[in-house]
Amino acid sequence: MRYTITTLIMLIFAAASFAGAEAEDMTLEVTPGKYEIKKETSTNLKPEPMTRTEETCITESKFDPQAALPDRENCSVSNMKKKGNNVTFDIDCKGGTQMLPMRGTAEYGTTQTTLSWKLNMKGMMEDQEVTVNSKGSGKRIGDCD
After folding, report:
1. What does the alpha-carbon distance between residue 10 and residue 57 come to, in Å, rounded to a whole number?
2. 88 near 117, Cβ under 8 Å?
3. Rounded to an integer, what distance in angstroms lies between the CA atom of residue 42 and that of residue 78?
4. Which residue, of 68, 87, 91, 114, has the fewest CB within 10 Å?
5. Which pairs count as long-range contacts for 87-93, CB under 8 Å and 24+ apart, including other chains?
6. What is the spatial order of strands in the sheet that 33-43 belongs to?
7. Nearest 5°: phi and psi at 12?
8. Of the candidates 66, 70, 56, which has an alpha carbon nearest to the alpha carbon of residue 28?
9. Taking a C-beta distance cutoff of 8 angstroms, is the pair 90, 104 a contact?
């Protein structure tokens, strides 16, 4: 069961995707196009990090970091700050059927043709602290197909 929950946690955070902007003042500029995205997620319950590289088409010129939350219904954002091309905030996820209750921090950044992020989360499972760290980067590799 611990392995299943750990796998689900890692997949949830690794699967955070980019979507259109909602809060104009906290969005980040990015050039639309095809991006190569490299993701790495690790947890203290599994020694080897899970890595994945994929290509995705970003169609919007503005990126809303809140839209990339793994579970927008059960996760809330506070202390959101924007400085230049970086946005930081705290995350509080109350948990659900496929996610532990967790708290942590996030940082997202972009340039015109790159993006990056870091998520650091902590929670408890069966009286043991669980940490999940996810980071990633992307670079524009051309136009969308």
Report:
1. 23
2. no
3. 24
4. 114
5. 87/26, 87/28, 89/65, 91/119, 91/121, 93/121, 93/123
6. 46-58, 33-43, 128-142, 114-125, 102-110, 86-93, 75-83
7. -60, -50
8. 66
9. yes
Global pTM reads 0.75
What's the rounded Cα separation, in Å, for the pair 90 and 115?
Answer: 19
CA distance 29 to 93: 27
Q: What is the DSSP string of 79-101?
A: EEEEETTEEEEEEEE--BTTB--
Total residue count of the chain as it appears in this document: 145
